[in-house]
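Before the break, one more example. Copy the sequence into your notebook; we will annotate it together after we see the structure.
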Amino acid sequence: MVSIGQVVLGVTEMPRAVRFWTQALHYIPRAGAVTDRWTILDPVNGLGVPVALGLSSSPVQQVPRIHLDLFAETTQEQREEVERLVALGAELVQWELYPDNADFVVLADPEGNRFCVIDLSHE
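Here is what the structure looks like once it is written out:
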């Protein structure tokens, strides 16, 4: 049986991507797994799925088929996390596909990779 070993994001500027995602997720670069073309980030506390950053020349997808969902426990926490992530360099995405009463906010990292912040308390 297989399991998810890590999530991989394509990036064009490795130092910028490492700075953003280490601060956004409270992760650290894995010792021995940092190069100009590939970096693996691990949770500081050891709990969670690693995120790998791979150098890529592929264009960013406007509606990616695979993306990260970051969970917030409450609406207030979601709002605070969105503000924090924007302060780190993420951008709010004006997305025409939001459903009515959406429980998520779409952001793009400094590389343009889209991800969502989900309010788990949303009803």
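The first helix runs from residue 14 to 25. The first strand starts at residue 7 and ends at 11. Try to locate both features in your own notes.
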